[in-house]
From TrEMBL:
Broad class of where this protein is predominantly found: membrane
Domain ABC transmembrane type-1: 75-265
Cited Gene3D superfamilies: MetI-like
Gene Ontology cellular component list: plasma membrane
Protein name per UniProt: Carbohydrate ABC transporter membrane protein 2, CUT1 family (TC 3.A.1.1.-)
Family statement drawn from the similarity comment of this UniProt entry: Belongs to the binding-protein-dependent transport system permease family.
Membrane topology: Multi-pass membrane protein
Regions that span the bilayer: 12-34, 74-100, 120-137, 143-166, 187-212, 242-264
KW Ribosomal protein (keyword) present: no
Subcellular location: Cell membrane
One Pfam family in the UniProt entry: BPD_transp_1
GO annotation, biological process: transmembrane transport
Keywords: Cell membrane, Membrane, Transmembrane, Transmembrane helix, Transport
Amino acid sequence: MSMKRPAIRRYSQILLAYFFALFATAFFAFPIFWMVTASLKSDQAITAFPPVWVFTPSLQNYAKLITDIGIAKMFINSVVIVGLSTSLAMVCGTLGAYALARFDIKGKQMIAFEILSIRMLPPIVSVVPMFILARWLGIFDTYWLLTAAYALSGLPFVVWVMRVFIQDIPQSIEEAALIDGCSRLETFWRVTLPLLLPGLAATMVIVFMFAWNEFLLASMLTSNAAKTLPVIAANTLSAKSIAWGLASAAGVVMSLPVVILVLLMQRYLVRGLTFGAVKG
């Protein structure tokens, strides 16, 4: 009996852990399930009480998004603007992080803090000056304005996160490549960058998500030509009513690119998020 009690206790703990894991998964997955099913219902079925669980799916809400709201154009705007800004922030931020991590720069700690201070600035403080400058420069409601704003917003995060990843790579590896005749740029491209792929993937996904879901700058610095998906999704809300079907459909459309990106990057994400957490 004394031998069976530890085994029973161990199996009970395992079952309890699985139960809590399944409960947590269901708890966090239910809003996604509700959003997807609501996007396939009519407004009457969505607001019905008790809730309607068995229904005939319809793509009417998605059709309205395309025909009435013009979400296809806004989707392209978001992909172009967020893609350019994320790429720009990753390239410039990674190079800046490499310089701060590897080079003996006077006052680099202060430089790093000043870069981080850009991230501390609330967007509501900078949106009015940016609006005035954009109108003066003639770039209001253009791709370039939002691309620059999102890139500058994501740059401090990239610099600080990638700086830690680069510092966790032994400098002796780069020194060996330099001794073998590689230049500093070749060393970074052939040696350091492949080792940074997990960190790059994790950082890129986070920067992409921040820019993809950003609403304040997109609503204040655009009028029509460069509107993005968050602005259009907000149009489903009015002062008197909420188009729940359209809002749910817009939420599904907004979520798909992020889900696809995470699935493509999942090979690197787990290692990237835990990279440097344990040091020997």
